[in-house]
Amino acid sequence: MHYVYLLRSLTSPQERYTGLTSDLKARIQKHNQGGVPSTASHKPWTLQTYLAFSTREQAATFERYLKSGSGRAFANRHLW
Asked: Helix crossing, 56-66 with 69-78: angle to 10°?
């Protein structure tokens, strides 16, 4: 399975992150250990939402959508 996930910073709740992985547990640990440069300054992170897809292509398409203007509006209404 491939996962699109949404994280929220516990220290700065206005900070959010959307990502894609095939190993959700390991990826969240990496974020919280500071192993991801774009999220290291706002750790620790908590998982808000995740969606599972059977193919990486489907997951990547949905991740790109969530990072678009209309996708951010959708996420704000339905996923955060």
From this structure: 90
For residue 71, the one-letter residue type is G
Residue ranges of alpha helices (H) inside the chain are 24-32, 56-66, 69-78
**What CA dihedral angle connects 72, 56, 45 and 47, to 10 degrees?**
80
Q: Do 75 and 17 form a contact (C-beta atoms < 8 A)?
A: no
Residue type, 16: R
What six digits make up the tokens of 10? 């516990």
Are the C-beta atoms of 59 and 66 separated by less than 8 Å?
A: no
- Record the pTM: 0.91
pLDDT digits (tens, 9 = 90+) for 51-76: 999 999 999 999 999 999 999 999 99
Encoding tokens for residue 64?
């790109």
pLDDT digits (tens, 9 = 90+) for 21-31: 999 999 999 99
